């Protein structure tokens, strides 16, 4: 099968000294649910943000469904981004808008600026957004303000927003890092189920190896900006896990990366 | 036994230098101005006299003063409304996360720094010099520093609180207009309103004072009374200004409290 996303020797350097990604090669095929694991500061967030160019990579190439992302112009980039959903650790919802409006934001990339600015969403889009919210168990919350929800509910709204894009790829950056175990389970279940059902490929950054093993069809281990493991969950041995996370102490203490910054 | 040091060495040194320098500079400055203690003493004797004159407040000028006050408030209001519209867009042009053309952002930032280093009084004087005395000069002169101030405040708010939202709108493929109107503006609306309320308060205070240099409003009257040693209406004028600013401060505080209260819910 042809990969939908192909990343070749991707490098990202911040400033003159911090090398966040040091030559990443990665292929993503349709229907894959890939967990990206690695210690804080390994470069997981940077990798995800390079894929939709929220961060501009320093070197390398990323091709998404045959289109080159790294050199894409403004308009093409917007068009590519509209096909890639993104889910954030801190949900990144607009607090003062309703839950429904937040979900409808998923449509903005596929609307004219005029219609977007004046929130003129089509009735079909509204129905689809409501259906998504109902599906994720948020029918009671549709007209609440986003900041009235609990963390787990907010993240499900985040998932709805991404799904509203009708994407072929979803990038999730530590979607459960700020949630309690119970909410985490609901969020991961929703994300996983919807991706599988709709044939959306998913790259999800995770801290927790056990969660990664439970959901992923494939696990990618990243350490100091390099892929050190890429295989099936059952191939990820304890020794390998230890190896991946071994860098954590090294990174935190010898290079002086503050914990907060790296998290 | 030697005592254990508890402070941060270089910070303490900095503080000592700072205080030392102030003390050393004080004396030459004091003598440079030839501050005359006798003049000061004479002035003290005058205080009961002036206080006495000011106590004889008269309400004869009340209608004029209220008219002046209304003019001042209108000048301030127009200044703030016009400035808000201009600054709103400029802020998005210069905020790091939303700047469409980084070079343009840099240029505007530099211009804002220049505008802000020039005191408001100078701006109003320039406006008075170019279009003559009156309210129009007040509005024109106040717009420059007000736009500079609001643009700076708005853009800081965008950079600080809008980061996550901007990421989210960009990620769905939204363009610049979407960032501005679908993401940041609803998110930061209350913060913007609070800054505008605060700015209105400052601008009213400035308008009153700047009337004295010819920018129209109640300040013009106060200036006249002072130059004619006309203390009776002056007292009333000062009282009116005081009450207005006091009420304004109370109201804006209330507004800000309510806005932030809603933000925390
Ligand atoms: N905006 C930035 N500026 C400078 N350095 C950064 C920035 N973002 C991340 N880094 C650095 O890049 C490295 C990788 O960070 P990140 O991708 O956030 O890792 P992870 O998500 O795996 O914790 C870290 O050393 C981090 O400090
Ligand atoms: Mg991260």
From TrEMBL, chain A:
Organism this protein belongs to: Paenibacillus glycanilyticus
Output the Pfam families linked to this UniProt entry.
ABC_tran
Taxonomically, which superkingdom?
Bacteria
Q: Has keyword Nucleotide-binding? A: yes
Taking the record's annotation, the residue ranges forming a coiled coil are none
The UniProt keyword set, sorted, is: ATP-binding, Cell membrane, Membrane, Nucleotide-binding, Phosphonate transport, Translocase, Transport
Tell me which residues make up the ABC transporter domain: 5-249
**Name by which UniProt lists this protein:** Phosphonates import ATP-binding protein PhnC
Write down the CDD domains for this protein, in alphabetical order. ABC_PhnC_transporter
Gene Ontology terms, MF aspect: ATP binding
Automatic annotation (TrEMBL), chain B:
Q: Which SUPFAM superfamilies match?
A: MetI-like (SSF161098)
Q: Which domain of life is it from?
A: Bacteria
- Keyword Flavoprotein, does the record have it? no
CDD domains, per database record: TM_PBP2
Instruction: Indicate how the chain sits in the lipid bilayer.
Output: Multi-pass membrane protein
Identify the Pfam families for this entry: BPD_transp_1
Where is it chiefly localized?
Answer: membrane
Q: Where are the transmembrane segments?
A: 16-33, 69-95, 107-129, 135-155, 204-222, 234-255
Family (UniProt): Belongs to the binding-protein-dependent transport system permease family.
Entry protein name:
ABC transmembrane type-1 domain-containing protein
Species of provenance? Paenibacillus glycanilyticus
Q: What is the lineage of its organism?
A: Bacteria, Bacillati, Bacillota, Bacilli, Bacillales
């Amino acid at each position: 099968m042809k990969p939908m996303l192909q990343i070749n020797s991707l490098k990202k350097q911040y400033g003159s000294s911090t090398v966040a990604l040091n030559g990443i090669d990665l292929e993503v095929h349709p229907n894959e649910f890939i967990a990206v694991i690695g210690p804080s500061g390994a470069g997981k967030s940077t990798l995800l943000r390079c894929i939709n160019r929220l961060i501009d990579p320093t070197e390398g190439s990323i091709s998404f469904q045959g289109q080159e992302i790294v050199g894409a112009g403004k308009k093409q980039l917007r068009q590519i981004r509209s096909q890639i959903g993104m889910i954030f650790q801190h949900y990144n919802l607009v607090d003062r808008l309703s839950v429904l409006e937040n979900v409808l934001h998923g449509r903005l990339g596929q609307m004219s600026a005029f219609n977007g600015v004046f929130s003129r969403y089509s009735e079909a889009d509204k129905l689809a957004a409501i259906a998504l919210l109902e599906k994720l168990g948020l029918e009671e919350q549709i007209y609440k303000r986003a900041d009235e929800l609990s963390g787990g509910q907010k993240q499900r709204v985040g998932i709805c927003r991404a799904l509203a894009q009708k994407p072929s790829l979803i990038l999730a950056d530590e979607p459960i890092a700020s949630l309690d175990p119970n909410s985490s389970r609901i969020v991961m279940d929703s994300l996983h189920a919807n991706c599988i059902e709709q044939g959306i490929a998913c790259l999800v950054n995770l801290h927790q190896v056990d969660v990664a093993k439970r959901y992923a069809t494939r696990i990618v281990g990243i350490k100091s900006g390099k892929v050190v493991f890429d295989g099936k969950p059952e191939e990820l041995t304890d020794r390998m896990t230890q190896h991946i996370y071994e860098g954590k102490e090294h990174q935190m203490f010898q290079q002086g990366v503050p914990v907060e910054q790296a998290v | 036994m030697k005592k254990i040091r508890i402070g941060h060495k270089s910070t303490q040194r900095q503080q000592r230098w700072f205080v030392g320098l102030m003390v050393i500079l004080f004396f030459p400055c004091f003598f440079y101005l030839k501050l005359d203690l006798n003049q000061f003493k004479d002035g003290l004797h005058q205080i009961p006299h002036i206080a006495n004159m000011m106590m004889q407040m008269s309400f004869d000028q009340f209608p004029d003063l209220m008219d002046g006050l209304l003019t001042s408030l209108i000048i301030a209001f127009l200044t703030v409304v016009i400035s808000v519209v201009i600054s709103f867009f400029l802020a998005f042009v210069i905020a790091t996360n939303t700047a469409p053309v980084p070079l343009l952002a840099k240029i505007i930032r530099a211009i804002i720094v220049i505008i802000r280093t020039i005191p408001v009084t100078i701006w109003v004087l320039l406006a008075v010099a170019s279009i003559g005395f009156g309210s129009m000069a007040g509005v024109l002169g106040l717009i420059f520093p007000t736009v500079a101030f609001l643009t700076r405040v708005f853009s800081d708010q965008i950079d600080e609180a809008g980061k996550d939202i901007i990421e989210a709108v960009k990620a769905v493929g939204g363009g610049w207009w979407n960032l501005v109107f679908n993401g940041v503006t609803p998110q930061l609306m209350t913060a913007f309103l609070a800054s505008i309320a605060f700015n209105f308060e400052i601008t009213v205070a400035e308008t009153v004072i700047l009337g004295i240099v010819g920018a129209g409003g109640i300040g013009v009257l106060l200036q006249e009374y002072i130059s004619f040693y006309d203390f009776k209406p002056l007292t009333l004028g000062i009282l009116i200004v005081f009450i207005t600013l006091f009420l304004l401060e109370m109201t804006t505080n209330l507004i800000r409290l309510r806005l932030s209260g809603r933000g925390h819910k």
